[in-house]
Design brief:
Layout lengths: L7 E5 L2 H14 L4 E6 L9 E4 L1 H10 L3 H7 L3 E3 L1 E5 L7 E5 L18 H7 L11 E5 H15 L2 E4 L5 E4 L2 E5 L2 E2 L2 E4 L6 H6 L4 E3 L8 E8 L11 E6 L2 E7 L3 E8 L6 H11 L25 E4 L3 E3 L3 E2 L2 E3 L5 E2 L7 H15 L3 H24 L7 H6 L6 H10 L5 H4 L8 H10 L20 H9 L12
Parallel strand pairs: 1-2, 1-12, 2-8, 5-15, 12-21
Antiparallel strand pairs: 3-7, 4-7, 5-6, 9-10, 10-11, 13-19, 14-17, 14-18, 15-16, 16-17, 19-22, 20-21
Helix pairs in contact: 1-5, 1-8, 2-8, 4-14, 8-9
Length: 471
Amino acid sequence: MSDLRQTDIAVIGGGATGWMAAAYLKRFLPSAGITVMESPTVAPLGVGESLNDISRRFNSALGLDEHDFLRATDGTYKIGIRFENFDRPGGDFYHPFGRPGTHHRARPDAQEAYAATGLCRQNRFDPGQEARGYHVCATRYSAVLRDFARALGVHHIKRHARDVERIGDDVASVEGVSADLFIDCTGFRALLIGEALDTPFEPLSDVLFNDAAVALRVPYDAVSERPFPYTRCTAMDAGWIWRIPLWSRLGAGYCYSSAHISPAQAEADLRAELKLPPGTPDFAGTSDTAWGDHDLKPMHIAFRHGRHARARRGNCVALGGAFGFIEPLESTGLSMTQAAIMALVPGLADLGGWDRLCRDRFDTTVDFIFAHYWLSKRMDTAYWRDLKQCTPSRRLSRVIEAAGRGDYRAIETDPGFFYRPSNWDVVLSGMGAFDDRPRIVATDPEDRHCPDFVSHLATHIHGPTKWSQLQ
């Protein structure tokens, strides 16, 4: 696009994805005309959302005040992810945020090189830690972004998007609204990139089995848990359970394979894992969520893994679920979308290059997620046995083989890897890929964040217990 300042952009679909795109583009292309077309009746899902460190950078680029953002979204800080029972039943490890305090790689205890690991174990948070994400209510996050975008001058149309006019490989208009660039944020429906432009969808059911989830919103007084500074992911017989601690409640859900367990059994297993008595109602939500004001039933969700063959076709780009979906085991959803949006502003001059980057990041993230399953030693249920029969991509096999030598050069030099060497190293370590190698020993002066230091740090840092302590 030759003159980005005069570009007319139509974002089709609201929710977190649509309003993130509108807010960011208007912030950095203030002269562009940006319109969001959002359904007047389809409410966003009010589930908890786990966000990685890129969300902090995204919000900072927008100029959102962090404390105001946390208050508005019922949010808490996040400095890592705890994985339970993935490598084997009873085993656990952390994927901590931040920089490792050692130059060593490919060690069986890689998590111990991170200050965040000790903090997570003691349920503490260091306000000075730069690398941090958030746990937020996705519905409230959407509202924050909507208000921010509208204040910048984004035009908001409440209208069902059905009628799409196509000319060749381009979208001419949607419900009579024309634009130079259309952004498909219609979720799994993929109204523009899929339905209108006939871009093929490439499924991933051969390596990622989970195709459904059941979600609950649980008040803290119903469970023996309180907010903690990490997302919990617990492997189950046919998938995994997430726990996302918001400020006022716990968001929890079971992401599972419908070929290995029924929805009813998945819900029962979720309630049992949370130690909820049978019949315990879900948290009462507000009227702006898909649960409704007084609907206390859990939410059952079906989805499909995979992506469209392209993230861009003609004058249309697809973001979020409209482009593709990977289960949120590493909190990939909004974080990958934010990365795509941040790359779109400079990428408007080369949408072909932006398209390749999105596809590469998606595909390497599939490898990263699949590694959590393929490296598992679990063989106790049909689900885990069937996963072991899957074939890893050649790229994943090469990454694991090179990682065993501490060699991550292929990742370091390729922007198509969404997750960086430190992420791969700590997850491969936690999954047992380096169990035959020596452990980290804090003898090198660079190893300042190794076990003794981490334990000392965690003992002397106290996380805030009230919002007033964050001011």
